[in-house]
Write a structure and sequence with these properties.
Elements: H1 6-15, E1 23-24, H2 25-32, H3 38-51, E2 59-60, H4 69-72, H5 77-84, E3 89-90, E4 93-94, H6 97-100, H7 104-107
Parallel strand pairs: 1-2
Antiparallel strand pairs: 3-4
Helix pairs in contact: 1-3, 2-3
This protein binds a DNA duplex (13 and 13 nucleotides) through helix 2, helix 3, strand 2 and helix 4.
DNA sequence: TGTTTGACCGGTC
DNA sequence: CGACCGGCCAAAC
């Protein structure tokens, strides 16, 4: 059995993101830390949204910008999902990103 | 097997 | 503020 696949680690963290919260690719990468980089998180998410039930819409880049919204659906599906969870999204960016930011390193480390 | 790319990040110009 | 570069690692071609 393959214990720790790259994607699995990312999936777990993303699934642990509470509603109304978002995190960044770099944060996940830093949390997993062991040889993971922000790009790998994005790569994993690409497979995630296609194959797995991973709330990738809760993952944005360091600026809170919905970088992956184009990958979600044709429309603003990603934004709508976030707003439905109580996250304010304006101009493809998460409103009060600092408040909404859920840092796995901090939250899970405690 | 080597090159290209990818939903990034931080720094620099 | 927009553009570019290096890093970091794995999948796709």
């Amino acid at each position: 059995m393959k214990a720790h696949n790259f994607f699995d680690d990312v999936y777990e963290v993303v699934k642990l993101i509470p509603e109304g919260r978002v995190t960044s690719y770099g944060a996940i990468a830093k949390y997993l830390g062991s040889g993971l980089t922000a790009r790998m998180v994005g790569w994993a998410m690409n497979a995630a949204h296609t194959q797995m039930d991973v709330p990738a819409h809760r993952v944005v880049n360091s600026t809170g910008l919905l970088t992956g919204k184009h990958h979600f659906g044709v429309g603003n599906e990603m934004q709508e999902l976030l707003e439905k969870e109580g996250i304010i999204v304006q101009n493809d960016k998460v409103k009060d990103f600092s408040q909404r930011f859920w840092n796995p390193v901090t939250e899970l480390a405690l």
